[in-house]
Specification:
The chain is α+β, with helices and mostly antiparallel strands. Helices cover about 45% and strands about 20% of the residues. The protein has three domains: about 10-60 and about 130-220 and about 305-375, 2-Layer Sandwich (Nucleotidyltransferase, domain 5); about 60-125; about 230-290, no CATH class. It has helices at about 10-20, 20-40, 65-90, 95-120, 175-185, 200-210, 280, 295-310, 310-315, 315-330, 340-365, 365-375; strands spanning about 45-55, 65, 125, 135-140, 140-155, 160-165, 190-195, 210-215, 235-240, 245, 250-260, 265-270, 290-295. The strands form three sheets. Strands 1, 4, 5, 6, 7 and 8 form a six-stranded mixed beta sheet that branches. Strands 9-10-11-12-13 form a five-stranded antiparallel beta sheet, with no helix packed on it. Helix 2 (about 20-40) runs parallel beside helix 11 (about 340-365), helix 3 packs antiparallel against helix 4 and helix 5 packs parallel to helix 6 (about 200-210).
Length: about 375
Amino acid sequence: MWLINAITPDHGTIAGFVKENRKAFHNTLQQLTLILKGWGLIDGKLMAIDGTKIRAQNSKHNCITQSGLDKKIAYADERINSYLMAIEKETPVDSEYKDKLETYQKLKEEYLCQKKELSEKGLEQKSLTDPDSRRMKNNGSLDICYNVQSVVDSQNHFVVDISTTNDINDQNQLHVMAKNAKKLLDIEECTVIADTGYYNATEIKNCIDDGMTVYIKKSKANNSTKNNEFRKEKFTYNSENDTYTCPAGERLLFFENTSKNGLRYKKYKCTSCSTCKYHNSCTSSKTGRTLQRWEYENILADVHKSTLENNNVYRQRRCIVEHPFGTVKRSLGYSFFLRRKKENVDAEAASMFIAYNFKRLLSLFSTQELIKKFE
């Protein structure tokens, strides 16, 4: 800084550089990952996947939804009616009333156009400032955010790869993140751990098909009566005669095949529910308790069993994957993005984790040792 007389680039120069080189940021993070692998600091044997919500450059008030527009239209109608009544009573008519009436009529037309646009495009919401951002839950409240996904290696807690999405949850991210990390590291086998937010039957099966070991716990799904003693997990499946046995000892027999969202299921039904003393605790259905079983349910059962058997490995998840997010948000101060649109935000997110990986390197090596390694 002394040699260049403290000359620093202004915000326009930085913004222009990012715009012209946005793809290079993600590539740089991946190249750094390969360098770290070459140094033996990443092995890819055990990796954890998690996501965090980071606020976008979009106000909550500049995000429209169907329900929000309905409320705004109802309020505009209320104001229009009140000003029409006031105009009828006033003689001569106050020009202020006319101006306000015209304002609310224009607002109503604008809201109706926005609602029509959402319906035609099949959208549940639309952000007006940053069109790629979405309203999602963030620390217990709703905010306009991006969902930043990361894969972290367990050996030294280096970030292997990241992805910036606008999915409001993590259910469709497990396979794509694990597959990309496995491909980047060029490894045949790996173990992936993730929390219950990633539990998705299709995603888990795809990971298993690609030669990965998956440790993930499923969320507890209650029955219709909310009685934990009669959740599906409490029912025992008998593969020999293809039946389920309920906690009360009654059998559920197969009665039909069904499909949903492209997945095939078998349905089982209990014929003794009407005389069972636990009927009201088990189900609210008058026709009796039913269960459905996915055609690859055995894969999910094996994953669940192996996760419980390797709980000591699964419990490392928090220490591995939440450390980078804590460092980026607290130590480096990144709580919101400065740029708009997904491709620009992804470049910014990549720069965050490049900085994080260098911060980790500086905790393992001195500056002089790092210079020699990069030479």
